[in-house]
Design brief:
By secondary structure, the protein is an alpha+beta fold. It contains ten helices and 17 strands. The protein has three domains: 87 residues, Carboxypeptidase-like, regulatory domain (Immunoglobulin-like); 126 residues, no CATH class; 128 residues, Glutaredoxin, CATH 3.40.30. Helix 8 links the parallel strand 14 and strand 15. Helix 2 packs antiparallel against helix 3. It is elongated. The relative contact order is 0.07.
């Protein structure tokens, strides 16, 4: 009986201990979850019972997360469970949104006005305060630009409108130059900050601020800094992937340009001519010297340059030089009319009618706004010269 009682008591003790352990583990886990929560809270001094919308920003867009109504004292709070830094956007009504960078476990406190949220006091997030510097500076410059635009409309009927317009344009350019300088200095000074990742990709109105080609060193520096500071962040990894893809594209373009230099064989292509039943390729001219002219029928510069080439070849000793004019257009009638009006019907003409979506743009690394471009190809289909204008090409022939 004693043994039985002892066994029962011991069993109850084990069950009690197990229950306590489970309860403790549950509480401990709950405590850990609570400590990992990230919080955005604050007060709107003029925002009693107003709706605050919280959205997440990433490389693909803006996504709704939550919304709350401020309390009677203007207070609000969002509790978020995150495992890496996240970009959030707070919006109240039609005011400019406040962008925040929230790290796991951070508690960001905000105090400000609903109608000017970007000027709110921010505590608890160095990255968010850093980004706010950019937001405020940009808001100031955009406001100045909008004022100038309104002034331009107001003065549109003045007698001296042209001089006023020129003055306003100079002020626009000055503001843009200041914005550009500020952004460059910002990224240069904070190369390991997620705030810089947002800043480097922003435009000023419709204008690009940081140019990828001219300011590539800033992109490279930021990429290295973010990899060192936030190696596992999805924002870092997405940016790093973009950089790697652009590096590959750059290398491919370098190889394309290299293969288009004199001494290399001219790339093969075959396109429909004015006669829809006839297709023409540069290789059809093997055994002859050939000029390949890339042009745009709607661009005045292209027409002028091809006309100069036409006039020169018609009276020079190069009358037997074959010409293949490759047009970029989407309308066959417009293309044909341009040829007829410029008196170039005796040349060979081709066009895939895809405009600036033509594969030849990439094949020959062309900029549609910088055409025409001329190539001189020898009898064996090797490139002997590449020229940016008819004048440059004609000068080379003379020499």
């Amino acid at each position: 009986m004693i043994r039985k009682t002892f066994h029962h008591s011991f069993l109850m003790l084990l069950i009690f201990i197990a229950v306590v352990c489970v309860s403790f583990e549950s509480c401990h886990t709950k405590s850990e979850s609570q400590s990992a929560a990230s919080v955005i809270q604050g007060f709107l001094t003029d925002g009693i019972q107003q709706k605050i919308i919280l959205q997440e920003l990433d490389i693909t867009g803006v996504y709704p997360v939550d919304s709350v109504i401020t309390g009677k004292d203007g207070s609000f709070m969002f509790a978020l469970f995150i495992t890496e830094p996240i970009f959030y956007q707070l919006t109240v009504g039609k005011s400019d949104p406040l962008i925040l960078i929230l790290n796991p476990g951070e508690k960001i406190q905000i105090r400000g006005k609903a109608d000017s949220l970007i000027f709110a006091q921010i505590q608890g997030s160095d990255e968010s305060r850093l980004l706010q510097e950019y937001l405020i500076y940009t808001h100031k410059n955009l406001s100045l630009s909008e004022s100038l635009a309104e002034l331009l409309v107001q003065k549109s009927k003045d007698k001296d409108f042209l001089s006023i317009r020129d003055s306003i344009i100079r002020q626009f350019d000055s503001i843009y130059a200041e914005q550009k300088q500020f952004v460059k200095h910002f990224v240069q000074s904070h190369p390991s900050s997620l705030a810089s990742l947002i800043v480097i990709n922003q435009r000023f109105g419709r204008r690009e601020v940081i140019e990828e080609h001219a300011d590539n060193h800033l992109f490279v520096k930021l990429d290295s800094g973010l990899i060192a500071q936030y190696p596992k962040s999805k924002h870092t990894l997405n940016f790093h992937k973009q950089m790697a893809e652009k590096a590959r594209e750059k290398e491919i373009k370098r190889m394309v340009r290299e293969n288009l230099e004199p001494g290399h064989e001219f790339p093969y292509f075959r396109l429909p001519s004015l006669d829809e039943n006839q297709w023409i390729s540069p290789s059809d001219f093997r055994g002859k010297k050939l000029v390949v002219a890339f042009w745009v029928p709607t661009q005045k510069k292209s027409i002028q340059q091809l006309t100069r080439l036409r006039d020169y070849l018609s009276v020079s000793s190069y009358k037997d030089l074959s010409v293949l004019a490759v047009a970029f257009d989407i309308y066959s009638n417009r293309w044909a009319n341009a040829i007829k009006l410029a008196n170039m019907t005796h040349w060979n003409h081709v066009c895939d009618l895809k405009g600036d979506a033509s594969p030849l743009i990439e094949l020959f690394d062309l900029n549609i706004d910088s055409l025409p471009v001329f190539y001189l190809v020898d009898e064996k289909q090797f490139i002997t010269g590449k020229y940016k204008s008819a004048d440059e090409f004609l000068l080379s022939l003379k020499n």
